[in-house]
Known about the structure:
- The chain has 344 residues and is of the alpha/beta class.
- It has helices at residues 6-11, 32-41, 44-48, 51-65, 78-82, 103-107, 115-132, 146-155, 163-171, 173-197, 215-235, 255-259, 272-278, 293-296, 298-311, 331-343; strands at residues 69-71, 87-90, 94-97, 138-144, 201-206, 241-245, 263-265, 284-289, 317-321.
Amino acid sequence: MSKDKTILRALAGETLPTPPIWMMRQAGRYLPEYKATRAQAGDFLSLCYNPELAAEVTFQPIRRYGFDAAILFADILLIPQALGADLWFVTGEGPRLSTITSQADFDKLKPVEAIHDTLSPIYETVKILSNGLPAETTLIGFAGAPWTVATYMIAGQGTPDQGPAHALKAENLPVFDAIIDRVTEATVLYLSEQIKAGAEVVKLFDSWAGSLQGGDFENYSLKPMQRITAELKALHPGIPVIAFPRGAGERYVGAHAAIGADCIAIDDGVTAEWAAENVQISGSVQGNLKSSHMVTGGDNLVSETKRIVKALSNGPHIFNLGHGITPDADPENVQLMIDTVRGG
Ligand code: CP3
């Protein structure tokens, strides 16, 4: 692993004159070349499980924009599927899964070791990427954090308030805890294989962390991510971990230490100035431009990008959006963001 890569330097705590940059969902429907490859694959899941085509869509934003990192093309819901849940995507609506709301449902899940039967094509994708990326580009592997993955496994779909998961936690804590533990253990195995295949950094997406209140935030967002991070670092000393407890607000403070993560990704619910004073003092941060600027562009995009770069310029920073880019974004606005970050 080359320590000259800018993303790895920022993750190691170095303050760089220009922050390295990549973008959540950088391979996605805002790009015509993504839509063409997705059509070739047939559907989204076929694309995820086709190593050649999944690698192709991962390369596309690197070729077009020269981002400093590539993120493996896959999905956080492949873990539930590998554990035996049914998974499908409804066009225009999103993911659907079989639900787990009882001990009997939980008992149908497969043991963690079985995940590789389903997920081995993903490890192949990582190998293709590891061999094919430019020397300066960092390869990021990822998984969903256990709470976020559990919210989909319990509800069977995305929910505005994660109500079904909160309800199961209140009504049947043993089954809820068993789901969290099974996903946590599977995630360690999954990410460990990604690292063996060539991932140089791993990121944990806790997209729904913000709905956990009080002690639940610590018990179900921070602690499972801490356990995954500790076990991965024991297996792969020095592997950098980015954690994204989205919607954490003031609870981003102390998150580096609570998780043991090298970098905390921040959404757009906090300002970069606040994050510099309260989060970046504990380690590197990634974020936090509003994704909507990729749709609206113009002077606001330029001034907000400059403001974030400046606010976080006194410590280690990886420039990114606060959440994934949306399908209605204009690819030219992405170029404008990159030029603004790199051009000063
Ligand atoms: O960032 C990247 O480019 C890497 C690939 C990636 C995808 N999903 C591809 C994808 C990553 C890192 C994810 C993570 C993911 N998936 C999260 C966590 C991050 C976040 O956005 O909060 C979540 C919650 C999911 C679950 C998921 N996958 C949903 C809710 C949806 C449907 C919503 C939508 O945008 O359509 C997906 C589908 C999905 N995952 C797409 C992509 C490119 C769109 C699928 C398509 O091509 O139709």
